[in-house]
TrEMBL record:
PANTHER family noted in UniProt: AMELOGENIN, NACHT DOMAIN-CONTAINING PROTEIN
Every Nephrocystin 3-like N-terminal domain range: 202-356
Protein name from the UniProt record: Uncharacterized protein
UniProt KW keywords: Repeat
InterPro entries assigned to the protein according to its UniProt record, in alphabetical order: NPHP3-like_N, P-loop_NTPase, WH_TANC1/2
Domain spans labelled TANC1/2-like winged helix: 465-559
């Protein structure tokens, strides 16, 4: 231990006088910033004391832990403010412990600056300061607990209700297989008879060409013009004609359908399902030892293009919504570059591609010599939209006449016509709705009209509707009404809300995944300036889903093994549904993507301390999740810059779980790898702080 004779720097005996500033604050962020600055001053002062004794510096690592924690809390409060522009008001339950902490921190600072003080108390400077840091650590825990409780209360949503233990299970057939990504565009419908006839004729003519001059038919047009409908129409037609064909419909609905990660495999699988002779050359290429190292273009050519050339086969590939393929990581550019290779002398693969006229897509087409067309060029006008509305409103000819002049202003946007028809067929005040639609013809205005007619006037119902929309937008994969109700904070609000929004949502029944009618609806809802009062913040939806995961895990973890063993197989399938196995692995993802992360700390800490061990065991024995899957969530959480304390608690609980030895060999190996990953993460975070 360092002696009192250490060379102390020449500093003032008082730290910043924090207590009055903390008491007078009107913004919770201010006292946290002041305390953080004071901590840094103490740490810098301790660092400046000339000693190489490790025992001297060791206690200060805990103060560095405090500093990192308060910095993370300040950052999360600032992120919340950027979202809702609401100043976090100070709370006495938080400020009280923080004032005590500031007072004791000032005491440590005085000890550093005046070694004579320690002589009066007896003992060495190092011993007395180490004890002072242990004392302040207890105060810090009280402060962080108070802040977590305060933040948890700040979650703005309708009152949560516990899930009923005998709540209606999902239908049995929903448990048999995992939900496959919707890359076949099953939500789309083919063209109404009589519409897009010239476009379909042009595509048919192109498909029969034997020339290699135009292997790609590129249809680019505005959002909502019916591109996916045409793609779906041709997919159905070519399937019925038994043509060798594959399809891939991009969509912003999910991470999978935005990505090219499964594109090549999906296309190759579809082709050999049509002609099993393709399976051999495809599998031979996949068996290459360096397969995992190949570029996207090499894989595309190897398992899609080359097998067709080897067997002298011609195939069609439909790629819908190129613009919805994510390009943040360069995926869309990789795909477009791979398609450029189709300009060979004898292309075996002909590609029908659709999308919005995004700049990079048009530039690629120009550089590649690919001509693109739009509906106006193909059809020669907007007559199809008029035909569509007359078809939908054939039982109301007087409404057709009233809408005639509005139709002309819709610029061929089919999605506008579809929503308008849905609203008219669903309303009792047709004349009032027609007057409203006549004011402006734009998708944004139509979405506002649709929501205005769907959202109840009372505040409680409006809040419930917003909560449901937030969950729908935040879901990793489209969820059904039955699934969303498991995670909803209040029973019964999901089905009523979804039914009200029938004009802008796609679903068949309670068990069918809910999808937005069109990508433009998501863009509208998440743009504050466009949506205005209907603006939806998906990060609040992540928060709701995270809390729903914790509630559901808690309920299932509370059931004893005797109860579960007593269930027959049918009852087990109902109680331990695919939903639990498939979705509860997402709690880490939703925590990370959530708004008000500080408000979730209490729930994460409580889960890690009280339920992680039990849940990991249940997940392994009953839910077909595997303990390792649960621990991956812990590792993901621990890697995030949420809070050093979150990292410490989650990794500690995770390590306790992994140390158990009652897993089979394969699980133990995976768990061991995660064990060492968690050790490394914890060591890095705790490098400058001594865990209690």
């Amino acid at each position: 231990t360092a002696s009192s004779g250490l060379g102390a720097p020449n500093i003032t005996t008082d730290l910043l006088d924090l207590a009055p500033s903390i008491t007078a604050s009107i913004d919770l962020r201010d006292p946290l910033k002041l305390t953080s600055a004071a901590l840094m001053k103490v740490l810098d002062t301790a660092e400046g004391i000339n000693t190489s004794n490790e025992d001297w510096h060791k206690p200060f690592r805990r103060l560095l832990f405090h500093f990192d924690t308060i910095e993370s809390q300040s950052r999360m409060l600032e992120e919340d403010f950027q979202v809702d522009e609401t100043i976090p008001s100070p709370d006495p339950t938080v400020l009280g412990p923080l004032e005590t902490y500031a007072s004791q921190l000032n005491n440590i600072y005085q000890l550093l600056g005046d070694p004579k003080t320690t002589k009066k108390r007896g003992g060495s400077t190092g011993e007395i300061i180490a004890q002072a840091i242990r004392d302040i650590d207890d105060v810090f825990e009280k402060y962080t607990d108070a802040l977590r409780n305060y933040a948890a209360q700040s979650i703005v949503q309708i009152k949560q209700e516990p899930a009923l233990p005998d709540s209606e299970p999902l239908r049995d057939d929903r448990h048999k297989t995992l939900k496959a990504p919707n890359v076949y565009g099953i939500q789309h419908v083919p063209c109404v008879q009589g519409t897009r006839e010239k476009t379909i004729k042009a595509i048919r003519s192109w498909a029969e060409e034997k020339s290699s001059e135009r292997p790609i038919f590129l249809l680019l047009d505005v959002a909502g013009s019916g591109k996916s409908t045409v793609a779906k129409h041709m997919a159905n037609e070519w399937t019925q004609a038994n043509r060798l064909m594959a399809r891939y419909f991009f969509s912003r609905d999910t991470a999978t359908t935005m990505s090219t990660s499964s594109f090549c495999a999906t296309v190759a699988d579809a082709l050999y399902e049509c002609d099993d002779r393709l399976q051999t050359p495809i599998q031979e290429f996949k068996n290459r030892k360096d397969f995992g190292l190949l570029s996207f273009e090499e894989v595309f050519n190897g398992i899609v293009v080359k097998p067709l050339e080897v067997l002298d086969l011609d195939a069609m590939l439909i790629i819908d919504a190129l613009d919805e393929c994510n390009n943040e990581d360069g995926s869309r550019s990789e795909l477009l570059n791979a398609l450029r290779t189709q300009h060979s002398s004898t292309p075996r693969l002909r590609v029908l591609a659709t999308g919005r006229p995004e700049l990079d897509i048009k530039q690629w087409a120009q550089d590649s010599g690919v001509k693109y067309v739009n509906f106006f060029q193909l059809e020669g006008g907007d007559r199809d939209v008029e035909l569509y509305i007359k078809h939908r409103l054939r039982s109301r000819p007087h409404v057709q006449d009233r809408l005639y002049h509005v139709i002309k202003k819709s610029d061929g946007v089919f999605i506008w016509a579809r929503i308008a028809c849905d609203l008219i067929l669903d309303t009792v005040d047709v004349e009032g709705l027609l007057d409203e639609l006549d004011k402006e013809v734009s998708l944004d205005f139509l979405y506002r009209v649709a929501l205005g007619h769907s959202i109840p006037r009372n505040a409680r119902s409006r809040q419930a509707l917003i909560v449901v929309l937030e969950m729908i937008l935040a879901s990793r994969e489209p969820l059904s009404i039955a699934e969303l109700e498991v995670f909803s904070p209040k029973r019964g609000i999901v089905e009523e809300t979804v039914n009200r929004l029938g004009a802008v949502l796609l679903y068949k029944d309670r068990e069918d995944p809910i999808r937005l009618l069109h990508a433009t609806f998501r863009e509208f809802l998440t743009n504050r300036s466009r949506a205005r009062v209907y603006f939806i913040e998906p990060r609040r939806g992540h928060q709701t889903l995270a809390l729903g995961c914790f509630r559901t895990i808690s309920r299932h973890s509370s059931q004893d093994g005797t109860t579960l063993r007593g269930l027959d197989k049918i009852s087990q399938r109902k109680e331990i549904s695919l939903l639990i196995r498939d979705l509860l692995t997402s709690w880490g993802y939703h925590c990370i993507a959530s708004y008000r992360k500080l408000a979730l700390e209490k729930h994460i800490v409580g889960f890690a301390r009280n339920e992680l061990l039990t849940w990991a065991d249940r997940a392994d024995k009953w839910y077909s999740l595997g303990t390792v899957t649960c621990l991956r969530n812990v590792l993901v959480i621990s890697r995030q810059k949420l809070s050093p304390m979150i990292t410490e608690i989650t990794t500690s609980s995770g390590l306790k779980t992994v140390r158990r030895s009652d897993y089979d060999l394969s699980t133990s190996i995976d768990a061991l790898l995660l064990f060492w990953c968690a050790k490394i993460v914890r060591a890095l975070v705790m490098l400058n702080s001594e865990p209690k």
